[in-house]
Amino acid sequence: MELRNEKIVLRDPIESDIDDRIRWETAQTEWLEWDAPWETEEKPFVPEDYRRDMKRALSAKEDPNRFRYGFQICTNDASERHIGWINAYRISDTYCYTHGEGKLTIGIDIPDESSRRKGYATEAWALYISYLLRQGIDDVYTQTWSGNHRVLGLINKLGFEECDRRTDFRRVRGTLYDGLTFRLNLERFNHFWDSKR
Q: What pLDDT does 21 receive?
């Protein structure tokens, strides 16, 4: 499946994405300082395991009309350069990660530093949120930490509003930060989305 607008393409993963992700996880790692930096301490990335798991996932026969919990992000130009991904996961009523049913929560990563501050993240989130709304999901959340200033402006611009704060919840590089959960205000998002068309 593929979604696109003037700036970006959201598409299903392909085999060449595997090497990109391994490079971003092992060599071009600056982005890891901002996207849940505590996760690398909790569960180290093992390239061989990732390659094996992704090849298995790519070879699986899946319903082409299934709900997508994520897409790869590419530039919408002649190169269609792979620059990151957008994904969804579930959180409980207490805003904690869960493997079961729960509130749909989205996140984004653009590890490619040369692709930042060009509007790609805004376009990717807006396109993915509009996809979720077409799938009948009208309650969308996102989470971050109070030190991730890069994403806080984007979250606000798209219409997310803070609904939960855990004071001194995460320690990042020796400093305590708040854990933040935001819920999408559909009226604000629709106003933002309509202004783009």
A: 95
Tell how strand 97-98 and strand 82-91 pair up.
Answer: antiparallel
The phi, psi pair for 132, rounded to 5°, reads: -60, -45
147-190 pLDDT, tens digit per residue, is 998 899 999 999 999 999 999 998 888 889 999 999 999 999 99
Beta carbons of 165 and 95 less than 8 angstroms apart:
no
Whole-angstrom CA distances from 34 to 14, 60, 79 are 26, 32, 27
DSSP β-bridge partners for residue 141: 105, 183
Helix, strand, coil percent values for the chain (each to nearest 5): 35, 30, 35
What average pLDDT does the segment 59-78 reach? 92
Give 196 or 192, the one with higher predicted confidence: 192
Nearest Cα residue to 104 out of 180, 167, 184: 184
- What share of the chain has pLDDT > 90, as a percent? 73
Tokens representing 12? 């299903």
Walk me through the domains of the chain, giving residue ranges and CATH numbers: 2-196 (3.40.630.30)
Other residues' Cβ atoms within 10 Å of the Cβ of residue 10? 23
- pLDDT on residue 17: 96
Residue 33: CB atoms within 10 A of its CB come to 12
Distance (Å, whole) CA 85 – CA 111: 9
